[in-house]
Amino acid sequence: MREIREEDIGAVAEGAAVLGAGGGGSPYQSALVLRRLMRQGARVRVVDASEPASDEVGPILAGMGAPTVGIERLPTAGRFGHLVEAVGRALGRPAGFIAIGEIGGGNAISPLIGSAESGLPVVDADPMGRAFPELQMNTYMIAGLRPQPLLLEDAKGVTALLEHLPDARTAERYARALTWAMGGGAGLVLAAVNADQVRHLAIPGTLSLAEAIGRAMERARRRHAPTSEGVAEAVAGTRHLFYGKVVDVERRTAAGFARGTIRIEGLGSRRGQELRIDFQNEYLIARTGDRMEDVLLAVPDLLVLLEEESGRALGSEAVRYGLRVDVLGLPAAWEMKTEAALAVVGPKAFGYDVDFRPLPGDLLGRAAVPA
Amino acid sequence: MHVGVDVGGTHTDAVLMDGRRVVAWVKVATTEDVATGIEQALAELVRSASVPAERVEAVMLGTTQFANAIVQGRGLVRVGVLRLALPIGTAIPPLEDWPPDLVRAVDPVVRQVHGGFEVIGTPVAEVDPEEIRDAARAFRAQGIRDVAITGVFSPVDPSQERLAADLVREVIPEARVSLGYDIGSLGLLQRENACVLNAALGDVAERVVDGFSAALRRLGLTARLYLTQNDGTLMAADLAKRYPVRTVGSGPTNSMRGAAAITGIRDAVVVDVGGTTTDVGVLVAGFPRPAAVYVSLAGVTTNFRMPDVLSLGLGGGSRVREEDGGVRIGPDSVGYRLTEEALAFGGTAVTLTDAAVAAGRLALGTHPLPPGRDRAWGERVLAEAARMAEEAIDRMKTQAGEVTAVLVGGGSVLLPDALEGVREVVRPPHAQVANAVGAALAQVGAEIDRVADLDPAHRAERLGALRQEAMERAVEAGADPATVEVVEVEETPFTYMPGHQVRVRVRAVGDLAALPAPAGR
Q1: A176 and chain B: CB distance < 8 Å anywhere?
Q2: Minimum-distance CB partner of B395 among A66, A76, A245
Q3: Which one of A231, A345, B49, B409 has the lowest number of neighbouring Cβ atoms within 10 Å?
């Protein structure tokens, strides 16, 4: 067991923004909430996936909603703590730990706030190793786990308990509609999981990975090196894909998602080339042309845009004309690259008729896919 | 005729302009109290131009005083902070992320009260008048009269902020109230931060504006007085007293606007070469392209739009070194000690100015250059300076192809007339006082930032209404109705949401309306 302290928040948030791969929202506000709780004496204990006893259960915590609404409707104190209590009531016994729903972006911090508010330890693992836009896009749901029970709590303390949801896609539909009715933002328990399920289904060590990425970026900054060097230090499979200037961002809203295309014109050694990135909140695919071999990277591998001046990872909502960016590719965790996972989070699941050609390696540098 | 004044850290510049023509200009040292320097500059300007004082119709002031007051935490007043958001938003109270020193300087009394709106315009909670009166009584008990009020989604509906302001004035009749809706755009924390900073500047704003008005009266000038804002437009002096924070980033804006105004060029890269740095910015349709990210002001995050400027360590005083058979310029500079430390002035520092002297580009200095610092060396160094500028221009360009570059600032002579990627290099007259020219020729504008329901059936009608409102606000701010135009419309959809809620930003600008001609002219 270890602890996350106030001085660690910045690194976790910065690394989480990288793992957001364009989505997950900015961790800025969540980080402020967590810092405030810690200054008031709250503690966040972190345990490995192997530590909770087999009979313990815990909620998968995340925030749900539109980041553009979240910048006005600031977080309300105590919401995740209430959700942890509510899930205990629904299960008829108290939760023993907190499970992370999404390690990318602001959602990496939400479970830590839940931990600070409830006193329960948070498990160092998540079910995607990045951010994804929909509730079925994680290893728990891909493995066939049901979203049971699903809870949403709005900013005023209204709690919704959904039971008997047949599958994650149905959950996505109900939760989306309820979140809208709740003002565009809500705290979410996707499901309750037991310790064995976390051990077998989640990707271990991703909270530590976020912190390690953030720390390596800090070190790079201190020696006046680009932060991309830091990311490559922390994630061995990192590829530098492109360097250039954003020359166009075309946005459209489709079925409630911010979809669009970013065009980046090459600079330096990439002069004369152009990279096109499609996004649906998260960055989905990077291409230099229209042929199959022009695809440099596609989901579930991670596309990361680092803004040159600040060195920080850019969310897709913040990309705009004229920004200079390094484009990095990070290999997804192997759990996201199985046949079953690719059916839900591969390029075809997002409507692209391209084959997934993975970057070599694993997000956490693990040797091989176990049989 | 208009007078533009730019108060910088080192110099106070003033120009007298007849239309787009510079009639006279002066440069004096900025004084400790600022006002004396301004008065000296104006007196000298009026005298040297021998123009009757009554022919000056308007005086435009660009100043760093408000920014300095915030950075130094000096002269700030205590602020009563009212946030209309309960029961939500409690996890991040006001001023949560401020530097402790600045919190002490503002020494706020904070009250979170019921109120705010949802994105669709329904209230989060109704305003409770007694709760607000109670907060105001708490402010009054501490002798506070400067109050900052910010409500959730007030850009969607400002009515609660206005109601709260009325309630505060019931209790504190002499209150100076800053409303988030008037000051910032979407992003509650950033808008609230800007609003609190604005309120904290209450005394400084009155002192600066009143002092400047008094100086004009002593000089016999009856001209209208304006201050320049971050976006390059003007604000009447009485409004500037209420919204001083809108002026904090006007320096680079004025310089770029001045370059545009002098040349008449609306789309160009502007390269401002000074003693220590070169600032490269981009003019789009006559206005500086804004920076993308949140702007930090003395460690406080705000959401003003500031110009996007790339600063290079390249200027007249930059040190020059030989490295690996090549030349390295800067980023360090001898700065204002150039006339003591540079080779051409008998010093030992090798500077970019020395290279320009060696190459025959500049004729100045008091001492001959030492052996080896010949024309070929000077040209090699200047070629490296040009390469650095070319790289910066290319990085700031937003489209492929060649651009027009406008060179301003005292060091612009260090750059050549031909630059790679540049169609045409323009060196406007009076480039050394481009800031003051930019202030003198600033336009009047208004920006609205709203959440609107743009469903296809009503889209055209609702966008039209927003454009109309932006233009009306510009006219209220003093723009000539005949010249007002919408210069920017930006739509940002909300993600993860059904419906057609869209964030719309509309900006309208126009020329400053002329006063009716005085009798007998």
Answers
A1: yes
A2: A245
A3: B49
CATH of the domain at A274: 2.40.390.10
In percent, how much of chain B has pLDDT > 70? Answer: 95
Domain match, B129 and B176 both? yes
**ipTM, interface predicted TM-score of the complex:** 0.91
Give pLDDT tens digits for B157-176.
889 999 999 999 999 999 99
pLDDT of B323 over the 90 cut: no
pLDDT in tens, B181-231: 888 888 999 999 999 999 999 999 998 899 888 888 888 888 889 999 887
Of B411, B434, B457, the one marking the end of a domain is B434
Cβ–Cβ contact B282 with A under 8 A: yes
Q: Residues A21, A152: one domain? A: yes
**pLDDT tens digit sequence for B462-492:** 889 999 999 999 998 888 999 999 988 877 7
CB contact under 8 A, A155 and B308: no
Q: Using a CB-CB distance cutoff of 8 angstroms, which residues of chain A are in contact with residue B188?
A: 71-74
Residues of chain A with Cβ-Cβ distance to B496 below 8 Å are: 64-66, 176, 179, 184, 256-257, 281
Any CB–CB contact under 8 A between A328 and chain B?
no
Assess B503–A contact: CB distance below 8 Å, yes or no. yes
Is B261 part of a structural domain of the chain?
no
Contact A75 B494 (CB under 8 A): no
Tokens of B3: 């007078």
For residue A282, give the chain B residue with the closest CA. B495
Q: Per the CB < 8 Å rule, is A72 touching B187?
A: yes
The total of structural domains in chain A comes to 2
Whether B331 has its CB under 8 Å from any CB of chain A: the answer is no
Q: In the predicted model, what is the mean pLDDT of residues B14-31?
A: 87
* Beta-carbon separation of A74 and B188 below 8 A: yes
Of A204, A238, A254, the domain-final residue: A204
A contact test, residue of B496, B497, B501 with most A CBs within 10 A: B496
Residues of B in contact with A67 (CB under 8 A): 495
Residues B236 and B224 in one domain: yes
Domain count of the fold of chain B: 4
* Mean pLDDT calculated for residue range A165-171: 95
Residues A292 and A327 both lie in one domain: yes
Both B193 and B208 in a single domain? no
Q: Is the pLDDT of residue A254 over 90?
A: no
Q: Is A65 on the interface with B (CB under 8 A)?
A: yes
pLDDT at A210 over 90: yes
Taking residues A97-123, report their average pLDDT. Answer: 97
- Is B296 a member of any domain? no
- Domain of B38, in residue numbers: 1-74+201-248
More confident residue, B518 or A90: A90
Q: Decide if A182 touches B, using CB distance below 8 A.
A: no
